[in-house]
Amino acid sequence: MTITSILVVYVVVWFLTLFVVLPLNVRSQSEDGSIVPGTPGSAPTDPMIRTKLKWVTLVATLIWAALCAFIQWGGLTIHDIDIWGRM
Q1: Could you give the count of Cα atoms lying within 13 Å of 68 in the half-sphere of its Cβ?
Q2: Residues forming beta bridges with residue 28, ordered by sequence position
Q3: Quick check: helix, strand or coil at residue 66?
Q4: Alpha-carbon dihedral angle through residues 73, 1, 9, 81, given to the nearest 10 degrees
Q5: Which of 12, 27, 14 is nearest to 53 (CA)?
Q6: Which of 11, 14, 21, 78 could cross-link to 60 by cystine, CB 3.0-4.6 Å?
Q7: Which residue in 55, 44, 58 sits closest to 21, CA to CA?
Q8: Rg (alpha carbons) of the chain, rounded to whole number
């Protein structure tokens, strides 16, 4: 794997992990009963972005390392995922 492909795999895994983690443990303003004027009731009261970003980075790094090791040591090749037989 080249450095570019390693970085691309990490970015893709990081963003996928982020989109999975973002909606977890979010309480809306209407659930808490404290709606700030000018905002919708579905807006989160405390989205905990810093905590989620730390967890996303940790989990994504572990998934990325396992995925890169699997690819690097020959567990998965381009010929394995070539479903049309063009390679």
Answers
A1: 19
A2: 44
A3: helix
A4: -60
A5: 14
A6: 14
A7: 55
A8: 19
Block residue for tokens 């980075």 = 57
Q: How would you label 41-57 residue by residue, b for 16+ Cβ within 10 Å and e otherwise?
A: eeebeeeeeeebeeebe
Residue length of the chain: 87
Tokens at 38, concatenated: 């000018």
Neighbours of 17 (CB within 10 A): 21
pTM of structure? 0.76
Which residue type sits at 26? V
